[in-house]
Amino acid sequence: MISDSITNASATAAPSAKDFGKKKRTNRSAKLKQSKLGLRREQWLSQVAMANKGDKEEIDSNRKPRSENPDQRDRPVENLDGLSREAEDNSGTHHHESFIESLSNSPNSILSGMNSIPNFSSSSSSGSGGSCSGNITEEEDPDDDGCLDDWEAIADALAADDDKHEKENPPESCEEHASIKQSASPRASVSGSNVAIRDVKPAMSRKQKSNQAWRPDDKLRPQGLPNLEKQRSFPVMNLHYSSVAVPSSCPICYEDLDLTDSNFLPCPCGFRLCLFCHKTICDGDGRCPGCRKPYERNTIKVEASVQGCGLTIRLARSSSMFCRS
Amino acid sequence: MAAVNGYQGNTPADPPATNGSKQPVPSTKTVDSQSVLKRLQSELMGLMMGGDPGISAFPEEDNIFCWKGTITGSKETVFEGTEYRLSLSFSNDYPFKPPKVKFETCCFHPNVDVYGNICLDILQDKWSSAYDVRTILLSIQSLLGEPNISSPLNTQAAQLWSNQEEYKKMVEKLYKPLNA
Questions:
Q1: Which value, to the nearest 10 degrees, does the dihedral of the CA atoms of residues A167, A168, A170, A173 take?
Q2: Which domains does chain A have, with CATH numbers?
Q3: Most buried residue among A60, A243, A284, B41 by CB atoms closer than 10 A?
Q4: Which residues form a coiled coil (chain B) (predicted)?
Q5: Nearest by Cα to B132 from A250, A267, A264
Q6: Which of B129, B132, B135 is the mutation pick for testing A, counting most A CBs within 10 A?
Q7: Residues of B acting as catalytic residues
């Protein structure tokens, strides 16, 4: 019963899970996905920052020997259709670049921007010759390794992830935002109008550059991602649990507290002990050793439902075991 | 336990019932004594590493369930310069039940009787399994300087407590050094 309510709560808490229609996905997999997405977003951001830098310095020899920026800048707008063939391969990054540009144009409304991704696809298609919007979903699916099915899921996951990443590494992301803002500021005034097409041309060349810079990453990504995920996600968990001072051993029997024990908080006074000692005390006078107040059976359940993750399901079972005994 | 044994010996028809009730006792006892052993060994380690001034405790030679402790009288109390030996005896219920603590050295104190029994709430109804030997000895040490006059075991000491100079003379007169 308790676990049912917990899974229901998690389903409502993470709307992306609902979109997949797979109820069995837990919060953990959603978190992994979010961190994956966050990682990709950082890759995009760094990609764009790199490309913008390269464009400013007019260095294109080391990145791509084939295309030259001045030539592409002088091309008429109609060539964009020709370019769009190349851009098709790359529409994912293309889309995201324009997406990030608009982000940097309105840095204060990052979350709202992420939630309105369908609008982005239309605006980016109008800016770059109308070849992108059809390809986005085609292109994005192989990139995601099948982990994301549609844009709404991405939007939800990104929106949920964004706060975390802002907290996690503010200086890095600020740097990125700053560089992007700098590069985006010259054409910030003309975004969305027809005049912007001119500015799209350098943007396109940049996209191609980022295209070629992106490729090796693309191939490497399946191997590289899991390690990065672990580095990203596990310290966060550790931080979360170390913020609460949990003794390493039970103060009653001096045995080490395992994961279930260290998440077991039977008394509001904060006195922790292992489940065995708690059971022994409950069989006896049933008073908390920390404050001498009698244990309340209900507080255990409250604790279990408050935390709301996989650990607490185990907790709920153990507490129900206590209720039975 | 003794009554059960006697009953069992007198009527051999009953043993199945008594055996059934008796059987779980030894198994839980061994489990308990093992956990008590671990706890007492850890406490001993903590006491030896901690180095609290004025208190010490160590198990008797071959029985870790019986300890001898010493308490030094705190400074600026009438017990300054005196040292007291205590015995601590732990049951298999420890730490869920308090150990039995007694003064072995004669102690002239309102809350200690002539047999060395101590009237201290944390050794009785206010016991918590979070207490250990160290906190017991520290509590007794502070009890020496701050007796509870309202419920005395030694009424003579309680009456004399108001006169600290006379009290100190009495303590020194009755005090027997540990080595003696």
A1: -120
A2: 2-210 (no CATH), 230-318 (3.30.40)
A3: A60
A4: none
A5: A250
A6: B129
A7: 119
